[in-house]
Each structure stands twice: as structure tokens, then as C-alpha cells.
Amino acid sequence: MVTTEIAExxxxxxxxxxxxxxxxxxYLDGLLYADYxxxxxxxxxxxxxxxxxxxxxxxxxxxFIIYHQITELYLKLSLQAIEQISLAPVLSAEIFKTxxxxxNNYFHSLIxxxxxxxxxxxxxQFLQFRMALLPASGFQSGQFRMIEICSTRLNNLxxxxxxxxxxxxxxxxVLEKIYWRSGATxxxxxxxxxxxxxFELKYMDTFLKxxxxxxxxxxxxxxxxxxxxxxxxLIPLLKEYDLNVNVRWPLMHYxxxxxxxxxxxxxxxxxGGTNWQQFLPPKNKRIVFFPELWTDEELSNWGKIxxxx
Length: 309
Hints:
With 309 residues, this protein is an all-alpha fold. 60% of the residues lie in helices and 0% in strands. It has helices at residues 4-19, 24-33, 39-42, 45-48, 61-86, 93-113, 115-118, 123-129, 142-151, 163-166, 171-175, 194-213, 219-224, 228-261, 276-279, 282-285, 296-300. One of its GO terms (molecular function) is metal ion binding.
């Protein structure tokens, strides 16, 4: 029996497909003969479970791969949420809060689950399979760098002592001084590592395009477009986000590096040749997305409390 409600929906479908020059009957035929959707097809489960290709037969390498893949999926969700804020046709505090809460939840999940990397692998197995990964490195996560670029003024991603040098420069020139580039230089010679050269070749054009697109629409710029009352509502969430991305997340990586790479009398080098002892601790990086929201004392102690100092 065709109810009035169903008839109205059929009429709307006819109008929809007519506007595209299509016949509704053809689409109904397709729906009639289409198979039922299954969970495994919808999320491409078979593909997903076959995306792990270890380079060695060492069992714990699969843990390493899967966790990094999970991480990249969370980063993708975070970028989508940032886009909902920064590119909203009409920005409101409500949109900002909704999406920022989501991002914080994504990072809370990543941070709390990173124990999988800190304690979830056998140290000897890790030290064996890691040599097959050279020169790949988590440093090469382009999505994480995109999150940084979309979150704040590009100058804030330059080490503090160098910021006066980049004030007023074109975005391309500021990118030349972005903090992470100095974190992947050979310790002995100061030259760029292969890890960094590969990364720049793949992503620098993308980063410049993104920095240009988000110059006036990054999270900090979007926050400043709101009224003082709306800004006040967002401050706790923005500070939480700042701590999640710039203190808690790198601190978990540092703990993992200490667990697997600390060795007396000399630490083991990272696969990408990065100076992890200096590069990973948040108190050394001192990168802050929203410096205006923190007191001078908080900024001077950035990352130290989290590291138990």
C-alpha cells in the first residue's frame, strides 16, 4: 500500500532525478537488483585488514604498523573537524565548540592508547625490526604537520628565538624556518637527513598551499573573529587542545623513545636520524598554538610540569 507519505517521497525523488535529466524508474531498478549492504563491505574490512605489510617476520612489527595506521585515521578526523571550523560559511561559537570537543576527544584517545607503543611491544623485537624501516620515521607524518599549520599563525611554528627574523616574510620563507626542519638534520654535519629530504619533496608544496588557504582561517584566526563573550567560552577547550597537541602527544613519543632507544653509555639513534633527545621533549620545542591564552609563567614553564620537573 502506497501511503501519502511514500507518494510524496516518490514525487520528490522524481523531481530530484528529473533535475539531473535522469529517469527515476532506472534508479528504482538499480535499487531493486542491488544486493544488501553488509558491514564488511561498507567499511571495506577485507581491504583494511590487508593493509599491513611488515618488512620482517618479527611479530611485533605488525603492532607498530597498525598503531601508526590508527593514528593517521585519528589525524584525518582531526583535520576534518578543523576544516568544519575554519571553512564554515558562518562561524559560530557553537560550531567551534562542537568540533573542538571532537578533536580533543580524538587526541585524548591517541594519548591514552599510546601505551601500546610505550609498553606494548617487546623491546628486543622492536630493535630488530626497526632497522628494516630506515629511513622511514614517524617524523614524516604529513597530516600532523597539516594540523599544526591549520591551527595557528605560521610564525608560531618557528622556534621562538628565530621569530623576529621571519616577521613580515612571505609564507614560503617562513616555512623554510619551521621548527621541525631543524629536528631532522644530521647530528654530526648539520645536513638534512634523507628522511627530511624525502618529506620535503613529498609535502612542501602541499604545506605552502595549505598555509596560504588557512592564513586567515586557521583556528587562532577563527577564534579572533568571534565576539569577546564567545571567545571566553572557547578558551578552556583551546587550551586543552594546545596541551594535547603540543605537550601530551609529543611527551608520549618521548617516553616511547626513552623506552626503546635509551641505552648507556650512548642512546640509540632514531630511524630517521632525528635528534629525538632534543626534538621530542615539549619543554625544548616550546611550540604553542595560542600563546595569547597563557600567562608568561605558564609559557616559561611550557611542558615542564608534564615531564615532572
